[in-house]
Amino acid sequence: MTEGLGQVSFDPGDEADSVAVPGLRHIPGWLDPDACQEMLARIEAGVWSTELRRRVQHYGHRYDYGRRSVTADARTAADAPPLPPWALQQAERLAREGIMDPRADQVIVNEYQPGQGISAHVDCVPCFGPVVAAISLGSGCVMDFTQPEDGRRAGVLLAPGSLCVMTREARYAWRHGIAARKSDPDGAGRVPRGRRVSVTFRTVLVPGSGSGSG
């Protein structure tokens, strides 16, 4: 896998699903089940914030939801500890595999209980770099992508252990969100959701920049 100028290309043989959103890749099984369980255990040892309806953890830099910005003042630094070893390990792997360059320096962990979701948005453009990568742990769910200009829609099943990488149009033009529901459609019926934990890796452009969605 190679990356350059904000574009990610997959070499022949990479097990990456193609989806209808330019610049989006969903890589099943990026983490095996044992690695997922170990990562969840490490996350549980961290400190959860309850500032939102869902629980979150911030590392490296704290995203201010009210100001829609990443800041670097003393209060923020105190609230956002450095990336822990488990996060550094995955950030280094993302860099080593050419998915993120430079290495991610900001990580946010989101916990979603059945029935919880997140409104459609684009990650803050002035705050973060051209690649956003997220690992799904626990339960799977469907993430909805929408193109606001022409109304195109695509649903991507984010399975446990999978990696979702957003670049180019997927990063900057399409909105992504998760419907607040307790099950997802699956061909012949519906699949109940369990507790899902997502771990999102991003690079901060300029601390203190803002204006955009998180």
Description:
The protein has 214 residues and is α+β, with helices and mostly antiparallel strands. The chain has a single domain, classed as Sandwich (Jelly Rolls), CATH 2.60.120.1520. Helices cover 16% and strands 34% of the residues. The protein contains four helices and 17 strands. The strands form five sheets. Strands 3-4-13-10-17-8-5 form a seven-stranded antiparallel beta sheet. Strand 3 and strand 4 form a beta hairpin. It is globular.
In short:
The chain has 214 residues and is of the alpha+beta class. The protein has four helices and 17 strands. A hairpin with a 2-residue loop joins β1 (2-4) and β2.
Strand order of the largest sheet: 3-4-13-10-17-8-5
Instruction: Count up the helices.
Output: 4
The first-to-last residue Cα distance is: 27 Å
Can you count the beta strands?
17
- State mean pLDDT (0 to 100 scale): 84
Q: Strand count, sense and closure of the main sheet?
A: 7 strands, antiparallel
Q: List segments where confidence is low: pLDDT < 50 over at least 5 consecutive residues.
A: 1-18, 73-78, 208-214
Strand fraction band?
25-35%
> What's the CATH C level?
Mainly Beta
Overall geometry: globular
Corresponding CATH architecture: Sandwich
Q: What is the rounded Rg? A: 16 Å
The ordered H/E elements are EEEEHEEEHHEEEEEEHEEEE
**Total domain modules:** 1
Structural class: alpha+beta
In CATH, the topology is named Jelly Rolls
Percent of residues in helices: 10-25%
